[in-house]
Amino acid sequence: MCGIFGYIGFQKATPLLVNGLRKLEYRGYDSAGICLLEPNKLKTIKAKGRVGELARKVDNEILPATIGISHTRWATHGEPSERNAHPHLDCQEKIAVVHNGIIENYQALKKLLEKEGHCFLSDTDTEVVSHLIEKFCLNNNFEEAVLKTLALLEGAWGLAILKAGENKIIAAKKGSPLILGIGNNEMFLASDASAILEHTKKVVYFNDGEMVVIDQKGFLTKMANGDIVKKEIQELKWDVGQIEKAGFKHFMLKEIFEQPQAIANTLRGRITDNEVKLSIDIDPASIKRIIMVACGTSFYSGLIGKHLFEKICRLPVEVEYASEFRYRDPIINNNDLAIAISQSGETADTLAALNEAKRKGAKTLGIINVVGSTISREVDSGIYLHAGPEIGVASTKAFTCQITALVLLALYLQQEKNAQIDKNIIKELKLIPEKIQQVLNQAELVKALANFIKNSSNALFLGRGFSYPVALEGALKLKEISYIHAEGYPAAEMKHGPIALVDENMPVVFIATNDQTYEKILSNMQEIKARNGKILAIVNPGDIRASQLANWTIETPKTIDLLSPIVNVIPLQLLAYYVADAKGIDVDKPRNLAKSVTVE
Ligand code: F6R
């Protein structure tokens, strides 16, 4: 949600800034802008729309500056426009600010500053930051002015700030991600590692409440009270190849096809034939209840996790939308384990829900993809997915790897509590990458079927048991990238209302593989067929009964019920992708969305 990139070094900053923004564009693409430090003044260039628009503008200028900051925006306060694009300047145009997050008290601050004579040019919350620094610079140096400003802000921020005449970038973090890349006589500041990786693997992660002063040769991190913080330099594990499209038309398609490998990576070193190895600093015997908090696709993997933990460990589980959880004074005990599931590890609602559970005494665990992300550093213990960077806005490989990690965790708790483990699950788990590959081999068939759906205005996705969250995820994928209105339902709920929607124009996708709900699903398919709905069924090879009821089928290999979501979601991801692509939509950057939702 908004991407920040900054450079200070010896190279021309502009191409590096534009390139950095391109890497971060998945975080928002409403507008983009850069600000360069020129001798004693700032040069700002902004454009509405994608980073490409900005690139076209900067191409026409000769810009020798070697220090600059930049931003790609996902609008929160103020419409997407050039006026609201970052960087935002003060009245004298001496201070420039780029910001990811929300300044919650900006209205009060703005009123105050306006009374003092400051003129605002945008509708954003961010602009108060540059004017506050301007105000405090009257009696303080740049650094002190930033510290004084930060003390007045409420909300969340990743900030990068330039001041004319000062050869440095000051950055600050609270609630939004910020990483510093350390090169040879050059420094790179970014919202996430994907923009830094091609320059250096040496990085520093910042904690909430920290401010860092960066120059060409080094950096100094301070707390709000001015105390210096010693930071550790860490090594990024990803390589550059992982953040390129590797011949695929879109990142989403590449990431769908990466799933056999991604799941193998989640499993690597964590299972033998009869043991699960996780380094978790939690006593399994002390856990009496699990509460999972997550958003979107990660929430749906939590719903599957509920089935898994109840079945494998016989533990009670609650799954909560992170955005709802924290506002209803939830009852939490010391024997609760709160699990935050998040691909990015930066989702503001998930982080806040986790902190609420922690504050009330729960032990915490993260199931996270992005190493070093905020949530991964807040939890007592964690399981990294090792799925590699997920760049496509629609989450795919993170979902299947999250389920894989949840299976591992459930087996681990079973093993630690009962000194035994269900070896059949382990055996089947090891076969999953190959089974996913078998589904991927049918991509051309799914592409052809997408033609039957692409002109529909609505679609229903139905499943039962383990397949119900898969139906929810299939519907979410379709609606978010193809803009077709889609709903996921437990199949048996149809007759309590939604079946009224079904007619010959309604495609209905059934997950009808041969699990313990198969007979029931067949009845639900009959109900739809009787009302002329068009059925696409996901079935196991050799299926006859569901296939006879369906207009179209896609086969997924048989596995045990509790692993079936990992395999059955693959054709639904492909379907959403091919429908959206056939409609000519920019699949990796669907309208109104951003990858990492760092606002509440
Ligand atoms: C959907 C999607 C979102 C995310 C949600 C949570 O395709 O990507 O629904 O799943 O925003 O994000 P993370 O997992 O990063 O917390």
TrEMBL record:
Q: Which UniProt keywords apply?
A: Aminotransferase, Cytoplasm, Glutamine amidotransferase, Repeat, Transferase
Respond yes or no to whether keyword Electron transport is given for this record.
no
One biological process term from GO is:
UDP-N-acetylglucosamine metabolic process
Q: Which residues form the Glutamine amidotransferase type-2 domain?
A: 2-217
Gene3D superfamilies to which the protein is assigned, alphabetical: Glucose-6-phosphate isomerase like protein, domain 1 (3.40.50.10490), Glutamine Phosphoribosylpyrophosphate, subunit 1, domain 1 (3.60.20.10)
Tell me which GO cellular component terms the UniProt record holds. cytosol
Q: Which reaction does it catalyse?
A: D-fructose 6-phosphate + L-glutamine = D-glucosamine 6-phosphate + L-glutamate
Query: Could you tell me the EC number(s) of this protein?
Result: 2.6.1.16
Q: Which InterPro entries match?
A: GATase_2_dom, GFAT, GFAT_N, GlmS/AgaS_SIS, GlmS/FrlB_SIS, Ntn_hydrolases_N, SIS_dom, SIS_dom_sf
UniProt-recorded Gene Ontology molecular function terms = carbohydrate derivative binding; glutamine-fructose-6-phosphate transaminase (isomerizing) activity
Source superkingdom: Bacteria
Query: Is Coiled coil tagged as a keyword?
Result: no
The record's active-site residues are: 2 (nucleophile), 595 (for fru-6p isomerization activity)
Q: Where in the cell is it found?
A: Cytoplasm
Segments forming domain SIS: 278-419, 449-590
Q: How does it assemble?
A: Homodimer.
Question: What job does the chain carry out?
Answer: Catalyzes the first step in hexosamine metabolism, converting fructose-6P into glucosamine-6P using glutamine as a nitrogen source.
Question: What name goes with this protein?
Answer: Glutamine--fructose-6-phosphate aminotransferase [isomerizing]
What organism is the protein native to? bacterium (Candidatus Gribaldobacteria) CG10_big_fil_rev_8_21_14_0_10_41_12
